[in-house]
Structure formats: structure tokens, C-alpha cells
Amino acid sequence: MKELRVGMVGATGAVGIELVEIMRLRSFPVKELKLFASTRSAGKKIETPWGVITVEEGREDSFKNLNM
Question: pTM, whole model, 2 decimals?
């Protein structure tokens, strides 16, 4: 299966945290994971199965170069 470039909005909330865990458990083919949240959460670092990822503020142009 092709590895995907994935973006997730709401990454610091309960659903976002659970979704990362589900992707890990199901061996989702992630090439790159971008995590997005509100301005308040931007800059927070989250440890994932794909490394430590810095949360970015979700903006209109945040999803460029991600698989749709």
C-alpha cells in the first residue's frame, strides 16, 4: 500500500489523540503526519508513532501537498 501524507485537524483534542492511536494500531501507511489545532495549541509537541510532531495552527493553506 502506498504511504500517505496525512493532516489532522483537532490533533490536541480527545478525538485527535484517539485517531493517532487507531492509525498506529491499524498500521496506517503514514509517510508524513501533520497535526493542526487552534492558535492556542500551536507549537505543542506531540509524540506519535511517526516521531515527535510540532502542532501547527490550522489555516486554509495548511493542507497543500497532503493526500486527499
Answer: 0.87
